[in-house]
Amino acid sequence: MYKILALWGGFIDFLLTLFRRKRLIMEMAKRDIASQHIGSLLGFFWTFINPLIMIFILWFVFSIGFKTMPRDNVPFVVWLTAGMCIWNTFVEVINGSTSVISNNPHLVKKIVFPLSILPVVKLVASFVTHVIFLVFLILLIIFQGMPFSLYWLQAFYYFGAMSVLALGLGWITSSINIFTKDISQVVSVILQIGFWGTPIFWDLSIMPDKYQFFVKLNPMFYIVRGYRESFLYGVPFWYNWQMTLYFWGVTGLIFILGALIFLRLRPHFADVL
Predict the structure, then answer these.
(1) What does residue 71 show for φ and ψ, rounded to 5 degrees?
(2) What is the average per-residue pLDDT within 217-224?
(3) Under 8 Å CB-to-CB from 59, ≥6 apart: which residues?
(4) In the chain, where are the structural domains located?
(5) 77, 79, 27: which is closest to 56 by C-alpha?
């Protein structure tokens, strides 16, 4: 009983640390964004250019080259962009979080520094690129003559849901990566499998019904579909309440497990690095 109470107390303090250091998180996120463009001629403008180039390539290849048919009366490039924008952010956070501690050994030596905020810094930094991606998505929607909808605001809910999932996974991968560098490669492979296993380039309806259940077990299926339902179809997030309960059950477990694993391994980081 004492151990359970100690674990619970450590978990609560872990979360409170994130709140107490919110100002430090914002400052480090600004530095992280700036460091990505050091020595670059265009600097921060690359944050706009990269999503724009990606969307242009998607539009040219699928709309002009392959002449892909619309999905449920939605142009394929819009349908694809709605899924890609949140998936790319998820991948950016996970990849960045996995190596963020091993890339900052000087911070590990500082016992009082809250290393748990480093994956949060990556998440906050990724939000800037995500917002820009969303702006281009909305411009695409308007360009295609699709109506404005208040359901677009649901993107904040789904981004928050993705954030909880990504942070839990980020704490797990970043802490284990200290002890075995293979984790970064394993994470890269899993994300590639996840990209093709999540209905981003393809529609779930093309898969036989008996296999669709297994695809829905992937928590990112809920997020990707949620973005499309918010921006393209106007479906409220509570409509699929069974999937919502499943997602938060799995994500909550991953979040708590990630925090506890990080707390358990944190005292040994300095010994390894």
Answers:
(1) -105, 115
(2) 94
(3) 77, 140
(4) 2-272
(5) 77
